[in-house]
Specification:
By secondary structure, the protein is an alpha+beta fold. It is about 30% helix and about 10% strand. The protein is built from five helices and three strands.
Length: about 150
């Protein structure tokens, strides 16, 4: 929970392994679709854990950043695109000097009235754990047409 360090080389190796094996970064999404058992990943359940970004010896000036995706049908490709650009985001934040100690939380929001999983929230992370949290997002692709996304959740 925010105590590790970002390693661009480790992230690139992970991406390379995924490309070679033709494996999706969103493994939980595939698992849900294959099984038909639609529910929030236990580690992304907004009711199961407190989310916190804290200063530590590793990150004495941590800055919390929440990235919440709209996973309704019209926006479902956005999380996939950002996942492939996670390395660029972290390089931009750290190497360009914008933030020395970013702690990024990924989450997803859908439609509270028509989606089975309208809210998914990860944990603030500093290392590859943020990519792990991305892999736990269910890209529901629902939404109710005229019904609005549930940002108020």
């Amino acid at each position: 929970m925010g105590y590790s360090y970002w390693s661009d080389s480790a992230y690139q190796q992970r991406q390379s392994r995924r490309r070679q094996s033709k494996q999706s970064a969103f493994t939980y999404d595939k698992q849900v679709r294959d099984s038909g058992n639609v529910r929030v990943h236990p580690q992304m359940d907004p009711y199961c854990a407190t989310r916190q970004s804290r200063d530590s010896v590793a990150h004495p000036e941590s800055v919390a950043i929440a990235v919440i995706f709209d996973v309704t049908g019209s926006m479902g490709t956005v999380p996939r695109i950002l996942q492939t650009k996670l390395g660029k985001l972290m390089r931009l934040l750290t190497e360009r000097g914008y933030l020395a100690h970013p702690q990024v939380l990924f989450g997803a929001v859908g439609d509270a009235y028509t989606d089975s999983v309208p809210l998914q929230i990860g944990q603030f992370e500093s290392g590859l754990e943020m990519d792990d949290d991305l892999s736990k997002i269910y890209l529901e692709g629902g939404g109710g047409g005229q019904v609005h996304e549930s940002y108020e959740l």
